[in-house]
């Protein structure tokens, strides 16, 4: 059985006090045993968050990192820096990084390589825009994202990968892919990985859905055969909503 995961991507939300308040609340909750919970706070709060949940099963995740190990990259954070504060998992390729910060498949491949050199786990995001979907180009776009950023990896590397399918048109818009649309794309991603590697590799990789997942729609999305959980933005900022989603399997 694949690992079920609910990961909260806080984006540029929650300062130090808000981060602590959330984690204090989270620690009072009963955590479902078979679901792995993750939270990605801002860089400034990673160290504090990691210390705060040291004895708790939630994993603290970074939202991004630079592909270089060190140097003149003002404003950037390296894999070694993340590891030095206890963070071993990083989100790469989020659509906001792709669109606002112009991160393309090639640079994301470099980031993936660096993260793996540092033995980190990766939540790698793929997703199509509305115009890709309207022009029926969505499968091609996803295939290209996988091929250009991940398909140079070895089979063994895939143990450290989680895929998040996040249709850009569904992020922060209140618009969700229908459970059928999510299943269709998740199955496509799994098939594409199986064809490149093996069905053994494909069947073991967790594929999360992201884009306006809320307590009210989580159960239906998570019930799809190839959906192994969610990458949650807005709804992960509130402990109650986050826990309702974590309990939606
Ligand atoms: P959303 O964001 O849940 O607010 O749509 C998801 C994401 O961007 O990871």
Describe it.
The chain has 249 residues and is α/β, with parallel strands linked by helices. It has one domain: Aldolase class I (TIM Barrel, Alpha-Beta Barrel). The protein has helices spanning 16-27, 46-52, 79-84, 95-99, 105-117, 130-134, 138-150, 179-196, 199-204, 215-222, 239-246, and strands at residues 4-9, 35-40, 59-62, 89-92, 121-126, 161-165, 207-210, 229-232. The mean pLDDT is 97. Strands 1-2-3-4-5-6-7-8 form an eight-stranded parallel beta barrel, surrounded by six helices. The protein has eleven helices and eight strands. The radius of gyration is 17 Å and the shape is globular. Bound molecules: 2-phosphoglycolic acid. 2-phosphoglycolic acid (PGA) binds at residues 9, 166, 171-172, 210-213, 231-235. Residues 9, 166, 171-172, 210-213, 231-235 line the site of 2-phosphoglycolic acid.
CATH superfamily: Aldolase class I
Helix content: 40-55%
Tell me the β content.
15-25%
Instruction: Give me the Rg, rounded.
Output: 17 Å
Question: How would a textbook summarize the main sheet?
Answer: 8 strands, parallel, barrel
Number of helices: 11
Question: What is the name of the CATH class?
Answer: Alpha Beta
Total number of domains: 1
Distance between the termini: 13 Å
Series of secondary-structure elements, N-terminal to C-terminal: EHEHEHEHHEHHEHHEHEH
């Amino acid at each position: 059985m694949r690992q079920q995961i609910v990961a909260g991507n806080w984006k540029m939300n929650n300062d130090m006090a808000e981060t602590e308040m959330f984690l204090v609340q989270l620690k009072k909750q009963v955590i479902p045993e078979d679901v792995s919970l993750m939270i990605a706070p801002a860089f400034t709060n990673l160290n504090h968050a990691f210390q705060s949940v040291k004895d708790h099963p939630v994993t603290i995740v970074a939202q991004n990192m630079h592909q270089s190990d060190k140097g003149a990259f003002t404003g950037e954070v390296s894999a070694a820096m993340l590891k030095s504060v206890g963070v071993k998992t990083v989100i790469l390729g989020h659509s906001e990084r792709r669109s606002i910060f112009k991160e393309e498949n090639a640079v994301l491949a470099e980031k993936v390589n660096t993260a793996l050199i540092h033995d980190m786990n990766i939540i790698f995001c793929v997703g199509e825009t509305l115009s890709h979907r309207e022009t029926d180009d969505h499968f091609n776009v996803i295939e290209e994202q996988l091929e250009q950023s991940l398909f140079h990896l070895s089979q063994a590397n895939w143990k450290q990968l989680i895929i998040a399918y996040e249709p850009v048109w569904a992020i922060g818009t209140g618009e969700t892919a229908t459970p059928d649309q999510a299943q269709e794309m998740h199955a496509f991603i799994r098939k594409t990985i199986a064809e490149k590697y093996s069905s053994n590799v494909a069947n073991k990789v967790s594929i999360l859905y992201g884009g306006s997942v809320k307590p009210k729609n989580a159960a239906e999305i998570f019930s799809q055969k190839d959906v192994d959980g969610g990458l949650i933005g807005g709804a992960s900022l509130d402990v109650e909503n986050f826990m309702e989603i974590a309990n939606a399997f």
